Amino acid sequence: MAISPSIRLLGAAALAAALLPAHALAADIAKGREKADQVCAACHGKDGNTPIDPTYPRLAGQSADYLFQSLVDYKNESRKNAIMGGQAKSLTRAEMADLAAFYASLPGQLKYKPK
Ligand code: HEC
């Protein structure tokens, strides 16, 4: 029996939804800001641009996908860093998505400066 095109389409939609990163579905910038103010601002600065140490990265304006993936990687230790590993451990995927969306929404200061 042939599979009807509409059933096939449904299957494709379900697959696409399963493969989408969490933050592509629903990220809450306001919640991200709240968490960031409480926790992350201590090191990355309230504006995501004024880290307390020059070796700490600026998060403002970076891509949400990259920020989200970095947090996932710190949590599962595929990206190893003692400080951020500890920070990411307690974050849920939804919190990571909110935080990534918040920092991505801020004006970035990342510039390439040719010599
Ligand atoms: C105690 C200081 C500290 C706190 C608090 C902290 N971070 Fe970090 N963060 C760092 C350091 C140091 C690095 C660089 C780690 C590395 O080299 O991988 C970093 C890196 C990152 C990166 C990778 C950025 C890049 O450019 O690759 C992300 C994303 C990030 N932090 C998000 C957060 C979020 C979200 C929070 C709050 C839940 C947070 N950080 C709290 C110190 C901190």
From TrEMBL:
Pfam family name, one: Cytochrom_C
InterPro entries: Cyt_c-like_dom, Cyt_c-like_dom_sf, Cytochrome_c_Oxidase_Subunit
Range of residues in the leader sequence: 1-26
GO-annotated molecular function: electron transfer activity; heme binding; metal ion binding
Keywords: Electron transport, Heme, Iron, Metal-binding, Signal, Transport
Residues covered by the Cytochrome c domain: 27-107
Protein name: Cytochrome c553
Organism whose genome encodes this protein: Quisquiliibacterium transsilvanicum
Lineage, top ranks: Bacteria, Pseudomonadati, Pseudomonadota, Betaproteobacteria, Burkholderiales
